[in-house]
Amino acid sequence: MEYTIQKLGNLTGISTRTLRYYDEIDLLKPARKSSAGYRIYSQQEVDKLQHILFYRELGLELEQIKTIVNDSDFDYAEALEEHRKKLIAKRMQLDLLITNVEKTISAKKGESTMADKEKFEGFKQKLVDDNEQQYGSEIRSEYGDELVDQSNAKMLNMSEEQYQEFTRLEQRVLASLADAVKTGDPSSDAAQQTADLHRQWLGFTWPSYSKEAHKGLAEMYVADERFAAYYDKAHPGAAQFLRDAIVIYTQQE
Amino acid sequence: MEYTIQKLGNLTGISTRTLRYYDEIDLLKPARKSSAGYRIYSQQEVDKLQHILFYRELGLELEQIKTIVNDSDFDYAEALEEHRKKLIAKRMQLDLLITNVEKTISAKKGESTMADKEKFEGFKQKLVDDNEQQYGSEIRSEYGDELVDQSNAKMLNMSEEQYQEFTRLEQRVLASLADAVKTGDPSSDAAQQTADLHRQWLGFTWPSYSKEAHKGLAEMYVADERFAAYYDKAHPGAAQFLRDAIVIYTQQE
DNA sequence: GCTTGACCTTGACGCTACGTCAAGGTATAT
DNA sequence: ATATACCTTGACGTAGCGTCAAGGTCAAGC
To answer: Which Gene3D superfamilies does the annotation name (chains A, B) (predicted)?
Structure first.
């Protein structure tokens, strides 16, 4: 079966302009051209187009897609993982935006008592600061821990001390965990202390404590490899160990 | 104080090209031009630029900003609210994208037993369906339940990023609550929106949603002083208010 | 064989918000 | 006078097409 450009367009829901563009950038070339210069596509191109659309659906850039569909021995996995990171970074930026917009809205609505000018100045300053922070972290790496930490701090709207307290506590959890894991016993005092620190740490971000939630989170620590990696950084097997300790901890009392 | 283009650029961190561009599109014109044709900006323009940058920071398009800063009697609130909705819609699209990418990654890793072709076909179909759903729901309303549910589904396998997402959502609940409580009306849109955010937030830690459980938790918010203290931090009486809002929310429909 | 209408071609501008030369004039200090 | 820093306008490039525009081709009906 052969298709003219419009036939193919109707089949796939892609505009003829787009198909011509894909031809132009060497992403998808027709099988041949008719004597009058018409583009003729065959089944192979239909299949290839489906591949292309698949990746386009995932938000990849056409240049990347070109590489993927042309190089048969391309590392899809890595490309996708890379792409995922980019998307997540984007989402974090969006989150920042949304928060700022919401702040602005509520400030505009709520505190008309405040001198408008003054308010504005405050916002301006804040945004400038935000900007610098963001910019700085962008330079550091694509989206390193810093950005995450900073946006967290900002978002949490914690006071600075609180935030430091929070991160300190996190460090203490890690340190304590590294220590406890050496005992090899999740029911040991050291391990149970770690679990308790972990509970306190949770208190910063969760409004309430429940054993079930705590245990649920612990399960996630082993189920999700990214989480696991975070804790295993402290010591190999630490995520598993922490899970066990928390399970015991939540069964207590 | 008067500024040449570069002076102004250094003052505000904006490139001269950008300033020239803003002149070109009539967003920010210099106060006057020197005899040699140099752009001269005065204090007024500095202030206006700050306004512009403020809105730009919020992700508004320059055309919109032009309207806002030129029409003195413009409805900021509505424009911002509109913008917020757009951002949220974008974020949900991003969430879907991320989900799809993750699905693809895990499928590639996990089920290499499946014939590649077959797998692909499935995905294609799935993506098409997703697409239609997405498109459909976008038409139905700005962001219908489907999208919310879909993004919820993803959250159930919480990863590290998702955990951060979770904490951010929590902050949004608080911000929204602080805003809503000022209306004094638990049935107001703002209050109901807060309740809805709260529901979404629950989705992170509860395997399934039920109105009863939701309402039960709300009751606890006033019964237990620790809960109350947490929410009252946002605004005195906020816990009570949130309870009332959730009760109304769960009675809906 | 001619007309009509549907389909095809290439070419080029438009969109967003600038970055980045390029070619040439201006201000200031030495 | 010269070096240097600064200014101007003009124009191309970015991603992924949408949207004319001007003109050639094909099948069908007369």
So the answer is: 1.10.1660.10, Antibiotic binding domain of TipA-like multidrug resistance regulators (1.10.490.50)
Which residues pair with residue B41 across a beta bridge? B3
Given the candidates 3.30.1360.40, 1.10.490.50, 3.40.50.2300, 1.20.1530.20, the CATH classification of the domain at B156-253 is 1.10.490.50
Give the closest residue to A221 by CA, choosing from A210, A209, A230, A212: A230
ipTM of the complex: 0.54
Chain A residues 27-86 with a CB less than 8 Å from chain B = 50-51, 53-54, 57-59, 76-77, 80-81, 83-84
d(CA B18, CA A214): 51
**CATH of segment(s) B5-70:** 1.10.1660.10
Distance CA A66, CA A22 (A): 10
pLDDT tens readout for residues B174-184:
878 888 888 88
For residue range A138-184, list pLDDT tens digits in order. 323 333 333 333 333 333 334 444 555 666 677 778 888 888 888 88
Q: Distance, in angstroms, between B26 CA and closest chain A CA?
A: 22
- Measured CA to CA, the distance from residue B151 to residue B172 in angstroms comes to 17
